[in-house]
Amino acid sequence: MTQTQLEESVEYLIKKGFDKPEIGIVLGTGLGQLVDAIENPIEAHYNHIPYFPLATVEFHSGKLIYGTISGKKVVVMQGRFHLYEGYDFLDITYPIRTMHMLGIQKLFVSNAAGAINLNFKKGEIMLIEDHINLQGGSPLAFKNVSEFGDRFVDMSEPYDLDMRTKIEAIANKEGISLQKGVYVSVVGPQLETKAEYRMLKILGADAVGMSTVPEVIVANHLRLPIVAVSVLTDECDPDNLQPINIEEIIRIAGEAEPKMIQLFKELIKEI
Hints:
By secondary structure, this protein is an alpha/beta fold. The chain has helices at about 5-15, 90-100, 160-175, 195-205, 215-220, 245-270; strands at about 25, 40-45, 65-70, 70-80, 105-115, 125-135, 180-185, 205-210, 225-235. The chain has a five-stranded mixed beta barrel. The longest helix has 25 residues, at about 245-270. Its EC number is 2.4.2.1.
């Protein structure tokens, strides 16, 4: 990855009409309905953007969408990249750097995750307060990282406190049950064993997924404030573990997504 490559990606998007977006939004697996809220959308498919990786997962359509939500200019990533698809950390986070260079000042991230904290129920939303990186690497571990920012990045408060406070107030006002907790990111794509769920609980995780952490690390590298939520799609009880049902996970994500959209739309209004 070079600055020149990023500049070419951004130049392409500006020519498409992507004009100084204020907020970047990353949509997780099964969480595509937010795009229906975008007014005057302009689409750029990943396979047309210079140097962009291509989306491979069937649940991901793979495009950047520019437009307005709640009166603010946004750029939405519909389809993200994962380690389990064979991408590296630079691929996974390239879109974050691109959106930042386009001009975003805030980043909203969503994902579908499994609830390790058994007080949390599937269909609920969890506001991510902190995370644990179990992906075995870093998107900042490359030779010329210092050309893009500090090599050693502080992670004492990776999720923006002000936006977290605002989204909690919105949830209270809208009557949306909002849990709070720690998200752990693993490689996947296989789901966890009973022993692994027990381990993750001991480590202090409330929810588990296969994304988000690389993007958040890079956003912190770029000093970009982040708010992130998990849509909890299954309950990871090692004592009553059922075989995984991907169709059900996608269905629950879809049913819970309107709550996430409401939170994001109201937060966009307030910031």
